[in-house]
From TrEMBL:
GO molecular function, one term: heme binding
The protein's name in its UniProt record: Cytochrome c domain-containing protein
Any one Pfam family match given in the protein's UniProt record, by short name: Cytochrom_C
Protein's organism: Seohaeicola zhoushanensis
Listed Gene3D superfamilies: Cytochrome c-like domain
Coiled coil: none
Length: 157
């Protein structure tokens, strides 16, 4: 009886990792066209006020490589170009594509793909030689990508 219950819990936990809420495009289903992603990943408009947190170290860590004057976050890196004016240089679809998987726009980019879970050399579970269990989570959720894109669109020249 106990064993049965553990199995049931394991199965429902697995399901939770795979199942996507209604209307959310799964990382493997994102359609790129010349690097751009025309369709919203969630159908819910992004909230640009979330960007400050999402672009800081705890989440996307965009500032490790980019300067973003509008956010006034400390110690920006210079590996990538400043993001000021990005909303004038790129369309929303192009920005969604760059944030989801920059390699679809910039071949060999060192910018991490923030909405991707496949095609990696899979990292092991920390400090063990074991393969990770279950699917990897993307670095940002679909809605977090939309929030960042909405913010980038406000960065006009
Ligand atoms: C490891 C460094 C790195 C990180 C982290 C990073 N980027 Fe980038 N990004 C780059 C580089 C380098 C480029 C320039 C294109 C290229 O050659 O790859 C770039 C280009 C871009 C561009 C196009 C710039 C322009 O206007 O020409 C946007 C937009 C962008 N990044 C957004 C982001 C966002 C948003 C995040 C965080 C969620 C992020 N980047 C995190 C390295 C990074």
């Amino acid at each position: 009886m106990k064993k049965l219950m553990i199995t049931a819990v394991a199965i429902s936990a697995l399901g939770a990792g795979v199942a996507m809420a209604d209307g959310v495009v799964a990382p493997g289903d994102v359609k790129f066209e010349d690097g751009a992603v025309a369709m919203s990943l969630t159908g819910v408009p992004g909230d640009p006020s979330k960007a400050s947190e999402l672009m800081d170290r705890k989440f996307g860590n965009c500032i490790a490589c980019h300067q973003i004057s509008a956010l006034d976050l400390p110690f920006p890196g210079e590996i990538g170009p400043p993001l000021d004016g990005a909303g004038s240089r790129w369309t929303e679809a192009q920005l969604r594509g760059i944030v989801s998987n920059a390699k679809m726009t910039f071949e060999d980019s060192m910018m991490p793909a923030f909405y991707k879970t496949e095609g990696y050399i899979r990292p092991g579970v920390a400090f063990t030689s074991k393969a990770p269990e279950g699917p990897l989570d993307p670095l940002l959720t679909a809605q977090q990508v939309e929030d960042v894109v909405a913010f980038l669109m406000t960065l006009k020249e």
